[in-house]
Amino acid sequence: MDLLSSKWILNLILCSLFIGVGGNSVEKKIYVHLNYTVPCVRLLNATHQIGCQSSLSGNVGVLHVLESEDNLDWVLKSGPNPPYLVILESPLFTRSIMMKLKNGSRRVAGVVVVAPNANPLEAFSPHTTCPNENSGVYSEDYDPALAHCNVTVWNPFGNGLAYEEFDFPIFSLKDDNDTHVIRQCYMEHNRAVNGSTPQYPLCAMQLYSHMSAVTNTATCMRRNDIDFSISPEMVCDPLGDYNVWASTRPINNTAKGHKMWESVVIAAARLDSRSFFFDIAPGADSGVSGFVTLLAAAHALRNATQEAPPNRTILYAFFQGETFDYIGSSRMVYDMQNNQFAVDLDNVHSVLEIGQVGLHTESKLWLHSDPVSRKNSSVLFQVRKLIENLQSAAGGLNISMDEPSVSQPLPPSSFQRFLRARPIPGVVLEDHQSAFSNRFYESMYDNAEYLNISYPPNMTPEEQLEFVTDTAKALTEVATMVAKALYMQAGGSEPQLSSIKADAQIVTRLLYGFLVRSNNSWFQQLIPSDLMSHLGKLGYKNKTFVPPQMYYYMWVQGAAPPNSTQREGFCIRSTVRLSKALSPAFDMREYTSKDYSTWTESRWKSIKGRIFLVASHDLEMLTLGVGIAVLLTSLLLTYVISSKADMLFSSGREPTNATY
């Protein structure tokens, strides 16, 4: 290679490097990338798909801030620059507006909902009015008069938005710097003044949330099985996780199935929640109030069950995936029926489930039971016994209780899945008589604010962790009542009842950790060091290792002594276990099952959003035309110069045979 060629190669390399750097700099000048974007994603079941998605390359639209429902005409009809990407303040995120945007989706590129810093005054629930109506116990085979919420509409505020399908992306943004930039860009470039048409350049947004799965669960699971490459890509995943369970006496978890002479009282609560947007599901009343109450009750029973063990074992069960057709509870019942769990249904004496107990309207709890199974005299006797134990346990506490009408069915609850297997005595504890008192059921507003969890100003995080809120005091009373009732239901001795009392400090720490700040000093003490990274996410999923023994052992970090940063870890021995919370439909490969949950979640590659200024269509076409003309001219010149290269670049050197 001669020196001239080397020089040109070096020049080309340097040019490419500078072009790369320049391109990156230009990209940053053109686009403003959005932080904290939370999308609506696609879910699928046996029959259809719900949720949202963008095109493969992302959806682009001119920004339009919707000021009122009357302003929709600009987006759907009269606006001259469709498609539009609509910015909604939270009061306008209603079913009426969203369905109009869905029906006019040819002019709608996407929607961004600005999440408020405070909860709205109006009720909002994107769930249906009859949660899990096709997967509970009431059906054509089990008192059809009670099926499909014919007697009680449990969630009257439900608008069903979370179960609609939208063919454009819908994102949620925090009301912070990003939304300020968006509003400013809209005001400067897009807002029509005095009826005039906005002039180019216009402010536009691009949203990426392309979903891989389509149609239904059977289709996406079949595509998962297609293996045409070395590294096949999955398009969807079954919804699932782990149930958490523990017992007051160790149960041999190695030998599955029926345990002779074993009788268990199941104390249950759900762990999961959801909202319209992925990963924003605080579930303060719908989930946290119940499982925090049960955790506090289990803590209150620790000493009593060790010092004077009751005749029956109390089995604490925390179910995952209950929002999606009772995934966790249906799996536990399935395992019990098929000798895949530590006990079977014959070992189950009764069930007490803790539901929504946030006590919003009044300090009154309602004891719900099933009117159909109560027709069995033995079931009725045990139900009455459990109710009497609950009422007795409430004595001396600031709690009143009552029973709804004898003909009223059970509210949506995990206990329904046990009743689908066989008549079992049980009670579901709720803070509502009929319809939910929770105005924000399964929404992003079912949060700490809604449970009235607040702290005096200027408190540090450590001070907030230890501050006992009024909500914590109320739930402590409920937990004390639940603990005493469980002890009596298990056949415990009456002298021990006076020593059973829930700890308000434990309750307030749990509420703070699950609803306010998960990465706190108390939670850090209770987990292994390899799980520290999970504390940045509320509602993280614990990871445990279950040996085939009577107990489970785990090393935790512990607290740091005063004037030291080194934690003093220690080993915990407990009866806590994990069991699979995956719908049996996926084990049996019955993706169209009507008996079990078939919900899956689509996979995706990129979730992001950005804003930029867009030129008019005419200018874009002119720019494209000029670019093509320059390209063709360059090709023509290159051809001409190449064909005349010998003449144009002759060195004028003497021939090699020249003599002197």
TrEMBL record:
Source taxon at top rank: Eukaryota
Entry keywords, A to Z: Glycoprotein, Membrane, Notch signaling pathway, Signal, Transmembrane, Transmembrane helix
Entry coiled-coil feature ranges: none
Membrane recorded as keyword: yes
InterPro entries linked: Ncstrn_small, Nicastrin
Transmembrane segments: 621-641
Compartment(s) where it occurs, according to its Swiss-Prot or TrEMBL record: Membrane
Pfam family of the protein (one): Nicastrin
Membrane topology field: Single-pass type I membrane protein
Gene Ontology cellular component terms for the protein in this record: plasma membrane
Annotated signal sequence range: 1-23
Domain Nicastrin small lobe: 39-213
BP GO annotations: Notch receptor processing; Notch signaling pathway; protein processing
Family stated for the protein in its record: Belongs to the nicastrin family.
Protein name from the UniProt record: Nicastrin
Source organism of this protein record: Dicentrarchus labrax
Gene that encodes it: ncstn
